[in-house]
Structure formats: structure tokens, C-alpha cells
Amino acid sequence: MSNDEIVESSFTAIINAPVDKVDIPKWCFTLPEHEYQGCSPAHIAAGFTTTPDGKRMSINVEVIGGSLLVQHYVEKLAKKDHLILESDSDIFTPTGRTTIHILWELSVKAIDGKRCEFTNHVRSSATKEFASFLDRQGIPLEVFRAQRQPMSIAHNKGETPLFAASIERAALKN
Question: What is the pLDDT of residues 61-103, one digit of tens each?
Fold first, then answer.
């Protein structure tokens, strides 16, 4: 764990579809809002747009541990079986607004001709703004990290099988 890392978690789930039918970027950048909301009770809204330089961006809004997050995930790597997204996300807490950096990696690998394993890997870290935000409140990053990890890990664990089921439905439509 790096000094600025807040949470890192990774969970897997089975997708009952052949790996060659799965297209994670297509799923991510066309995900209907109701489908996103069905992947976690914490999910509020989702949409997609592009950055000024034309990269695809997934906008996700969710509440984790009582804090509202608005995530602006920009594609860094987009292959059918592997998507890496990065976001400097806005986080609205009871004590104010700040940002955190999130790296979200989704991937699949074949198990056999009919199934694949989906991995949902999320890593968040403190931005300079976030470190200053905690400093102004006298909260050491280690204390924040210890409180945040259980909530974020539980969220990722809960959404992973539901994301896998959503990706499976999309794959079987193709």
C-alpha cells in the first residue's frame, strides 16, 4: 500500500457467457441508468460523455458510507476483455467537498468455452486536495483509511456479482 492509498479491493464473479461475447467497454459506455442502479443500492445515476480530447467517460453517482461521490471515469485502456478507467472524483462529505483519485479496472478471462471470470478491481488514493482537506480537520490519513476501508470493500464485494450479471446479459444479447 502506498502512503496516499485509501482502499484497494478486488473481487471476482462468474459470467455464464463465452469470453469472446463479452465487450466490457461497450457495456460500460452504453450502460442504461436503471441497469447501473440495479447493480447496487448505493448507485444513484450513470451516464456517459467524452473528454475534450475525445476519450470516452463514464459518469457514475453513488453514496458510500454516507458520502456522495460523483465519478468521472476516463478510459485509459479499452479492450473487449479489459477496461481501465481513472477518475478524480468529487466527494461530498458532511464536512465539505473534496476529491479522491480512483483507478477502476474491469477484466474477464476465459474459464472454458461457455464461462469466464470477471474481476472488479478498485483502488482509491488521496489527492493533494484531499490530504489538505483531512489536515484542516486534524484527521490523519491512517484514521480515515481505517474507517473508509470496510465500507468501500463491502460496496465492491456487493456490486461485483451484479456487474457480472449485467455484463452477462449484455454479452448474451450480442
Answer: 999 999 999 999 999 999 999 999 999 999 999 899 999 999 9
Q: How far apart are CA 1 and CA 98, in angstroms?
A: 22
Strand order of the sheet with strand 5-15? 5-15, 116-126, 96-110, 82-93, 67-79, 56-64, 43-50
Identify the structural domains of the chain with CATH numbers, from first to last: 5-173 (3.30.530.20)
Prediction pTM value:
0.94
CA nearest to 96, candidates 64, 67, 127, 76: 67
Q: Which residue has the cell 441508468?
A: 33
Residue 151 and residue 155: Cα distance in Å, rounded?
6
